[in-house]
Write a structure and sequence with these properties.
about 475 residues, globular, SH3 type barrels, alpha+beta, about 25% strand, endopeptidase fold (from Nostoc punctiforme), 5-stranded antiparallel β-sheet, about 20% helix
Length: about 475
Amino acid sequence: MRSTALLLSLLLALPASLAAREPVQASPPLAVPGLAEAHLSPGFWIDALADADRVVLTPAQIAAQNARMQAEDGSIHDLEALPGHVDGTQVRAWIEGLSKLPERTLFDVHGQPVERGELERLQASLDLDAIPASQPLRHGMVVRRADLRTFPTRLRVFSTAGDTDIDRFQESALFPGDPVAIVHESRDGDWAFIVSQRYAAWIEKQSIAEGERDAIHAWGRRAPFLVVTGATARTAYTPENPAVSDVQLEMGVRVPVLADWPAMDEVNGQLPAAAHVIELPVRGDDGRLSFQPALLPRSADVASDYLPLTEANLIRQSFKFLGERYGWGHSYNTRDCSGFASEIYRSFGVLLPRNTSAQAVSPALNRLPFDAGDSHAERVQALREARPGDLVYIPGHVMMVIGHVDGEPVAIHDTSGMSWKPEGTDDLVRLHLNGVVVTPILPMMSNATTPTVDRITSIQRIRP
């Protein structure tokens, strides 16, 4: 009783400013319409599912789908099936199909127009006249994350002066361990034109090592292995071997494990007591490929196999990128909308085409197409029936459905932004989101009069 009375007297003696504090104010509302803090947690969406851990596709079904993708989708290249010699006409077709001089004015990072002479020098750097009628096909492997470019240049160019987010010469990126076919080199010898499983483009030669076809593809099938299941993982820093030091591995990358490595043998100056011993590709001074051990810390978000393809795992994997900056063509060391979707699915062992234009029409997936004859109501109904993991395409963009709030579809996607009309107004509000975000789909507007829903071209369902 005495202690209670003492506490009461102390409280009464407090200054009014402390004894009667204002209630803690809630965080300001999020910019995205209809979005609440709870929606930014994967648990919110997983808890709403009746059977979140049900396997959507088994490993055998995924393998069968990947085989269909390899056989039926024209954007996918089967590198092991390429002939021992490549025809010059085919090489020219690959290069000329990509490296086209633009007709419009382009601007550099300083907002100045790129001179026509500079563009013509880039065209000459392709060295098309040096392509032989036929040549032996060379094989290589990517040793560090590397950009794929329209032309053999680091020059960044943009459609609008001052808007430097979308580099029109940036195509994509490849990751350590990705195999490539090498079919041509730039005039200065610093760049190679390569064909990868999902893209053909220019890459800096220092990012790839040349080796034998069989050894390259055997490495990719080695077991045991680890799959990166985080947004990224990095090997341990080591001054003893810079080639395997602090190497960034992206979600879905698979690397062999040296499981029989002796516990008392150091790896690059460090005992592997708290790390996995993995094997990575390395480029020698002569440009040739070898494989060397590296340490991947046990703290890395990795798994000993591809993840089970469940709706819960799809949601978890997508949220590992939440808030990451948007990177057109995988610039900024991040990814764009189609890369976001394909890297999520890569962590399950699922192969998707690189670009939205190919993903949206791939015959190897369970596709629901839309055309001008489909009404707004039909499109909305399809979205209300969509399941987590379904991919929704409009021209140039893809969103992944994660669930519904009061029956209304919600997606996570990597986007430059969205537009919407606040209720009761005709004003179009543009949100410069520029990253991986959660948004409701139905309020999105493509322009002042066209809901984004009315521009949907397809929904791709990676399920039976």
